[in-house]
Amino acid sequence: MNGVFNATWLMSQHFPAVQYAVPGVIPEGFTLLAGAPKAGKSWFALDLAFQIATGGTALGKLPVGRRRPVLYAALEDGPRRLQSRLHALGVTEGPTHLDFATMLPGDPIETLRRWMADAAGTNPVIILDTLGKVERSARGGETDYARDYRVGGELKALTDSNPGSSLVAVHHTRKAVSEDFLDMVSGTQGLAGSADSIVVLRRNRTETTGCLSVTSRDAAEGEYRVELDGHRWTLVGDSLEAAAVAQSDAKATDNVGSDMATLIAEVQKHPQGVSPKDLKQGLPGIAGKVDVYLQRAAEGGRIVKLQRGLYGPVSSVSSVSFEGSSNEPDTSDTPLEFVA
After folding, report:
1. pLDDT-derived band at 172, boundaries 50, 70, 90
2. Between 1.10.10, 3.30.70, 3.90.1200, 2.30.30, what CATH number should domain 254-313 receive?
3. Which residues contact 36 (CB under 8 A, 6 or more apart)?
4. Domains of the chain: which residue ranges?
5. pLDDT grade, residue 187 (50/70/90)?
6. CATH class as words, domain 11-239
7. Using an 8 Å Cβ cutoff, are 219 and 177 in contact?
8. Predicted local confidence at residue 322, as pLDDT
C-alpha cells in the first residue's frame, strides 16, 4: 500500500543530520518566532539574517557555521528603515548572501517558493516579517483552526521540499499571560501545531533582559536568558547551558520579596544542598524567617527539598544537546537574484 513502510526498512536507513540555522535554537523546517509588539523581535530577526548570511555568531555566542543564502522579507518596512537598522547593528557593508524584499508580488507564498527553489541545495533561510502579511482568508465553511493549519502547512511545505532549509515567520503573542509559553502564540492551535519549532521572545517593557523559550521537534526544549545590548539580543552567559541556568535562576526569584529572593539566591549557590542551620548562619538578617521562607519557596517550586533538612536549587535545566550542522564549504559569493 502506498505510503506504508516496514519498521525493518526504517531502522536500516541512514538519514542526514538535522541542519541548524542557529545551533540548538532554529533547526531546519518551519519556525514561528513570536513576541509582543515592540519586544524587539524584528531586531532579533534582522540580526539573525545578517549572522546566518555571513557565517557569523547568533545571539552573540552561537557560531552559525557556513554562510547560507537568506531572504529577509521585511513586509512592514522599507529600504530606508532597513538600512538604518543595519547601521544600528554595526553593519557597514551588505553581505552578498542576504536578499531583501519589502513586498511579495502575486501569491506571496508562491513567490517565496520560487526564491527557495532557486537556492535549492544551499540550505537557504527565509525570514518572514511578519506572518500576518501572508495570511489567507478562510475558505467557505473552513474554521479558523483549519485556516491557520492550512497556512502553516503551506509554509512548512516550502522547507519540506528543500531539505536543510529553514523558514522563520515572525508573529505576535496574545496579550494574556500564560504559564505555558505556547499558549501565548496568537491565533488558534492550528498555527502552532503546523510549525516544526516555536520560539517565543519575552521581556518586560522597561527591562533589557528577557527570556527566549524554545520548543521543537528537533531542537532541545529550553528557556534561555537573553539581554538587549543596544539593538542586538545576546545570550546571558557563554553558552545555551549557561543561559538556561541564568533563566532558571531569574525565574526562581521573579515576583518575590527581597528577603525571599535573598534566601533563594543563597540556596542556588549550593547545588549539592544546604541546611536551614547553615542558611541561618549565612543570612543572619533573615535568620528568623528562614524556616518559613524555605517552606514557601519549596511549595512554590522555586527551590527543591532534596531530603529532610536539605534544600537545593531547582534542577530544571536539562543538558542542551543537538546535532550541529556540518561545516560545508561556503556557497558561491554570487548573490541570488530575487524573482518577483
Report:
1. confident
2. 1.10.10
3. 172, 173, 175, 202
4. 11-239, 254-313
5. low
6. alpha beta
7. no
8. 47
